[in-house]
Amino acid sequence: MDYISIDNLEAFGYHGVFEEEAFLGQKFLVTARLYLDTRQAGMTDNLKASLDYGEACQVIKKLVETERYMLIERLAEEIASKLLLTFSSLHEVEVTVKKPWAPVHVSVDSVSVTIRRGWHRVYLSIGSNMGDREGYLDFAIDQLNALPDTKVAAVSDYLETKPYGDVEQDDFLNGVLMIETLKTPQELLKTSLSIEKEAHRERLVHWGPRTLDIDILFYDDLILTEEELIIPHVEIPKREFVLEPLSAIAPYYMHPVYKKSVVQMLDELRKTDCQMDDK
């Protein structure tokens, strides 16, 4: 992808763990690669189609000079986040923070940290079969939209479905969301669990009734297997109540493991169900 590079922007700040760093301050050098599509700007010669790197420089300089952090890792994170949230055209940023006068008691040109951060496209399923079902689903969307580093980009229609599993319970209202977020999968899981808790979700019975259920379906094309989190969600090919609303907002999204589109998986599942009904 195209990028604009800001190299070794110099600013004076007070970041560091030692008292003298907080009192005396020191010079910092920041390099930022700003990843975006510059095609339209190149074709039209119009600044509005690109990114004002002068403004980006001011955003970085102000943050370095007005805030104070113990670690340059934190400073780099704040710079990356501020740039991504300020400029809507940015997809990713790579930020290097150099500390030329680092108190390490040996001769070095500088100590630095480099991070790369960006927006991630994520698909979530939401469901409820207790109380005000639609209200709980709307609550989940509102809570996600209220996060500074997350925005809901698409919402399917809500679909009423029979419960999944062997537990006798009321019908569900289900939907699927596409969000864009700066959160890692683990951070997003933690946020989802927190939103469920605010909706008074209780985990008493596996696949049992719930006020609100939020599942991470896909996170970019990531394949992740951890004790607390598996992406893509393992049940996707088996769940029509996920595939049907997902097909409405992302019909041709390809499953990174099975290499099948959402509509392909939905069609195969329906054919399998029909064959089972015929037996």
Describe the structure.
- The protein is α+β, with helices and mostly antiparallel strands and 279 residues long.
- It folds into 2 domains: 3-118, GTP Cyclohydrolase I, domain 2; 120-278, 7,8-Dihydro-6-hydroxymethylpterin-pyrophosphokinase HPPK (Alpha-Beta Plaits), CATH 3.30.70.
- The chain has 8 helices and 11 strands.
- It has helices at 19-24, 39-44, 53-66, 72-86, 133-145, 185-198, 240-249, 262-278; strands at 3-13, 26-35, 92-99, 111-118, 120-128, 150-155, 159-161, 172-181, 213-219, 224-225, 230-231.
- The strands form 3 sheets. Strands 5, 6, 7, 8 and 9 form a 5-stranded antiparallel sheet that branches.
- Helix 3 (53-66) runs antiparallel to helix 4 (72-86) and helix 7 runs antiparallel to helix 8.
- The longest helix is centred in the last third of the chain and has 17 residues, at 262-278.
- It is elongated.
Total count of strands: 11
Q: What helical percentage do the residues reach?
A: 25-40%
CATH homologous superfamily of the largest domain - what is it?
Answer: 7,8-Dihydro-6-hydroxymethylpterin-pyrophosphokinase HPPK
User: What's the SSE pattern?
Assistant: EHEHHHEEEHEEEHEEEHH
For the record, the CATH architecture of the largest domain stands as: 2-Layer Sandwich
Q: What top-tier CATH class of the largest domain fits best?
A: Alpha Beta
Q: Could you report the average pLDDT, rounded to the nearest whole number? A: 93
**Radius of gyration from the alpha-carbon trace, in angstroms:** 24 Å
pLDDT < 50 runs, ≥5 residues:
none
End-to-end gap: 52 Å
Largest sheet: 5 strands, antiparallel
Number of domains: 2
- Helix run count: 8
